[in-house]
Amino acid sequence: MILMPLNLVREGMVTARPIFTSKDNMLLDEGVVIKERYLNKLVELGIRSLYIRDDLSDKNTIHDIVRKELRIGSFFAIEKIMDNICYFDEKEVENIRNLVTKIIDDLLEAEDILVNLSEIRALDDYTYGHCVNVTILSLITAISLGYDREKLIDLGIGAMLHDIGKTKIDSDIINKPSTLTIMEYEQIKKHTTLGYAILNNIKNISYDSRIIALSHHERYDGKGYPQNLKSEDIHPFARIVAVADVFDALTNDRVYKSRVNTNEAIDYIASVSGSQFDNVIVDKFVENIARYPVGQGILLNTGYKGYVVFNKKNYPARPTVRILYDDSGKKLKIPYILDLSETEDSIKIVGTVDDVKLF
Question: Phi first, then psi: what are they for 14, rounded to 5°?
Answer without folding.
Answer: -120, 135
